[in-house]
Fold each of these.
Amino acid sequence: MYKKLILVTALLAFGVIVLGAYVRLSDAGLGCPDWPGCYGKLSPAHAAEHIAQAEAAQPGGSVSAPKAWKEMVHRYFASTLGLFIVIIGVMAWVKRDKRMQGVGLPTFLIVLVVLQGLLGMWTVTLLLKPVIVTLHLLGGLTTLALLVWLGLRQSRDIPEMRTQDAAGMKTWALTALAVVFIQIALGGWVSSNYAALACADFPACNGAWWPEMDFSHAFHFTRELGKTAQGELLSLASLTAIHWAHRAGALITFLLLAALVFKMLRIPALAKLGGVIGLVLVTQVSLGIANVLFSLPLPVAVAHNGVAALLLLTLVILNFRLTKALKRT
């Protein structure tokens, strides 16, 4: 039961991440401009009058009935996720003597999901401040990764491998995991600053390999959405710097993971997982290029977020297997 609950919760966490990307990319993050309800109501249906008034006051703005429903559905799923994680934590404490696995990770997950709830609230109340939106994304991915790690601890079907193979791959796997996490953070910064189309062509950026860029304002983390720290409008050069940094990170990530996959394919116990990582990597790069070439179609953009999460999870699985193999010695 415990193992099944962790699996269901991990799937729910993945769904919440994809839903969050859909809400953000649909410009529905302020569909309900308060928290946790919608104009203080349980659902947009109960707040229909307030939503209609806001839409009439600002047609085509951030508030509308469809956007409100998108935002609230995401909140409903996120709340359910939080409840499931609390149940997992309680079960871990109740059965701690029988499971012999410790309660540290389940307890940390409870703390993390509470923090995620706060970040979700601040995302709305601070009007989509980029640093809060990006941290909310990274918190969601960390929650998913830890749930998968917790689920893997319940499994006894981990393929064995030689200790020397595991030792030789450990540094590569940890580095790849860190690089992918940083690259996802850069992608979140692109999305939260609406910089996905700052470079309108590929592989060059606006017809240049080194376009005009302003990194000083691009990566200032305490500013408001669309503005510099001084309150001025964020320039195209700043948005271009954000986008270009993500592209440069994508190239580094691709080269590192391609080398990792090549090494994994030479180890029988890791060959299948290496093939999966390679497939997910190529898919992710293709989706990123398609976002630029086709001007950020919503299904492709959402898929880009989802596949990023999958790529991270494959590396979590790899690191778990290597850690398990080294602990056997």
Note: The mean pLDDT is 95.
Amino acid sequence: MESPKILLVEDDPNLGTILNEYLNAKNFISTLCKDGKEGYETFLRQDFDICILDVMMPIKDGFTLAKEIRRVNHEIPIIFLTAKAMKEDKVEGFKLGGDDYLTKPFSMEELLLRVQAILKRTHMVTKEKQKEEFDFGQFHFDYRNQTLTIESDEQRLTSKENDLLRLLCVNLNDVLERSIALKKIWGDDSYFNSRSMDVYVTKLRKYLKKDEKVQLINVHGKGFKLVVND
């Protein structure tokens, strides 16, 4: 069984290093980031099974980071770490979709048990996140085999077309932000990569014309949306 991947975002260098080393020693693959900005960029580049976020951080705090993560992934579990014990802060954390909340100081063993409990509870959600086949409109999309099929017409997809269509399917009828797609597939949101993505969007749009109820639309200033009309 593959070791679960943890995104750990903690600005205290001593605590961050201790937690990171402890989690790695307990058979997790933990990636430590020192602030919310670095944490978000790392989240976009890599796949994780759970996020552990410090609340009080410079540049970008944990609550703001959680909002951004939730826009990309609605299911990934989030545990907040904070020095605050205010009831209002806990309520805010849970409103943002947090799964658990630990107040400093806490024991390593308690954190470990909470991580294990959450991962066990969300195992089926994680499997769903890795879904590789999608049906929308009259299309069947097989991500593993890189094929888009409608009736007996099968279109082979390039790797970039394949990755982009999967992101659109995961966000079906919701906006896929341009910067998120660029960072996840191309690695950064440079002008050159942005123009490249537009070429692939045009190609996908051509394939999708075979079902008039399916549209790949531009959302001005935001990104794209794969829509299936009734």
Note: The CA atoms of residues 68 and 86 lie 23 Å apart.
Amino acid sequence: MASGFLSVQFGWTEVFLLVLAWYLLLRYWENSGKLDEWNASRIFFGMVLMVRTSKGKKSLEKVSKPRKFWRAYGELSLWVCWGAMFFVALGIILAIVSLIMMGNQQEARPVSELVAIPGLSPIIPLGWGVIAFVVCLVIHEFGHGIQARAHGMRVRNFGLLMAGPLPLGAFAEPEYTEIVNSPRRERQRMFAAGPATNIFAAFILIVLLGQVAGQFSAADPGVHSSQIIVDSGADEAGLEAWDVITSINGSDIQDSDDFADVMDGLSAGQIVPMEVVRYGNGTTETLMVNLTDKYDYYLELGVDEESLEAMDIEQGDAFLGVQNLAGGTAGVDRLAGWAHPDFETSALGYLISVPINVGQLLITPFEYQGVAIHPAQEEMLDSGDGWLASTIGLSGLLFLVNLLFWLIWVNILLGLTNLFPMIPFDGGHLFKDIVHGIMTGIRNLGKKTGLYKVHPLWVEHVTRKASSLSSMLLLIVLVLLIGAPYL
């Protein structure tokens, strides 16, 4: 299956042996002079390889030529980052308030999921993870580099931080003194360009994912459920999660609308035949289902009669006993969200759907343990009649979907995490400059009004203190939020 392609995972024993082998290899390269030849060095207890290269500088120079355009891009990036930082901060505050008021509501997840290392974390496969991190880190650092050149700052080197084949980070090395001495607004644009470029890239890739998603069709027209209600008619008849329902009582079912229409014509207490395609072996079976009462089911759940009336549920309505009903292309449609060609809504609907879709994309690897589409839903897919489907077929489409998904996921991850207002993240540098600007404004106001005097060193002192304090507080908060489920 394409979802499993490049989805290699390692156990802790294999990881230890690989780390040891990597360390010994680095020591050998260092002693033999190879690292000096490659303009590389060992850092972080000698376990991480910092590789520098001047390659890409000529391309960077050409790309950054339209200076006015890139400065405008930098200004847009800055506003996008300010907005994203607001929502990141708001999310952290809401998480803190929820933790204080409601206590810990989350189950402790495996510790390995907290390590965002491809192959080691069960939610990030080695192959897809390495490809996505390398591409997205290059995008991120190229964004910084373009802004540096657009504002006249020199870039000495590009580089990657490597732990074996795993990319741990990337960097663009502008001249440090030029960054420090540059105007604050230009410096902020440079810091904002990296995460903003990741966010812009993710948006473009989501649009592309939507177009690819439109090339799929269902292998078996029908509907399936990921959850079968215990002791319901479906459960007693032998229906299992991911089985595809193709007909009920002789009526064909192509999609969820057909299912609703068929169920509206049936009543509680009826025993009807239901044809299903079994998940796993693809065989077709006919199950006899004793339909129960939907009205009674919801009453037992505690739903009051007025709510049931508002939901247009009456006594005697037929109830099969399935939840999360979806069509054959639901797995890929879920990823595409608002970008799918068949998705239609109002302008407000799109505005609401975009952040919801981003949230769904981010939690997908946690739900499906490192794959973009549940294996059962992947088996339900077939290539459609579009030009792309005809050209590359089902396997090619699935490869594209997985590639686009992981590029989107990592771009969003890098873009948002880099906006945490703590050093050494880009958001920390932006926050530091914001504080410096506020303190400078206070000092200038005192000079103009003559009401008070503020020494320039006070501005620098307060800025450093505020930056250090915010970084420390945020680190403590993140540790508490992450560690709370384990307490």
Note: DSSP finds 17 helices and 14 strands in the chain.
Amino acid sequence: MADLAFTIISIALIIPISLFLGVIYAFLLRKFNARFQWRVGPVVRMYSDLAPVIGSTRVWQPMYDILKLFGKDTLIPASAHKRLFTWSPYFSLFFSFAAVLFIPFPGMPLLSDAPYSLIVASYLLIASILFTILGPVASGSPWGAIGARREVELFLVAELGFVASLFLVAFMKGSLVIAELSGTVGSIPMVLVTLLAGITMFAAMLGKLHIKPFDMPEAECEIVAGPYTEYSGKLLGTYFLAKIFVLYNMVALFIAVFLPPVSSSVLWLPLYVVAALVLVFLLAVVQVLNPRYAIRKALTWYLKIVVPLVILGFIAAFALRMVA
């Protein structure tokens, strides 16, 4: 009974925690990008008497943007398949939030000790991405269709690295339970294979989070807003909120699987925060240093880099299992 009560309390707490951290990660990505490019925001350059009007911090700017959208009109194109177009953002948000419950946070295992929690969490994240494809396809917009097609092509290669990196660690450690993966470090050879899988996972995150050079589905200068061209108001805000949760999930899942035992105890919370900040910083560095790839070049990059890493990782993991 005590364990059930603790789980319920943890689930209630993780809702604001995941939203807060997702907003912070999104803000830091924007802030790092701006600083690397020597761009200074209006709070620094504006007249000081205007600061009380717009606020003295931009930490909550990603959330401000979402709330602003919820206050605007929502337009549904006449050519759209209305039910699929309308419900896709909500399904995307639902699945991205549901994945939060299966990824541990320091001091809160949540549902990460449930059977096959690794499969459940990964499938929920995949489902969230799928509904960012189905909705735009249902919009009836050629720009949405082009963006959705690019999303599909990127999805296929990025998910390969995402799924393979997770199940490489699962195969090596002999478990599909995230709580068990995040609680063991293993031998030095196992750590090296985990490092290789972590590099593969990071490459997959670039595509799943649309970090340059893999932001071609949303190339504004080419296809307006890509998949989101016909979305507005609360539907667009819902999609952006889903992206906040996906960002949190990807960071949390990376730490849980590839940096054990950082997510296993509340005592590791300071290191968890540092690891999350470093990961977001690295994503920002990649974003700034690279121009956008053409979709064909992105696919070629994944096939040349990620596939060999996956094959090498599974060979090493299989050798470790044979020796053990």
Note: The two ends are 39 Å apart (CA to CA).
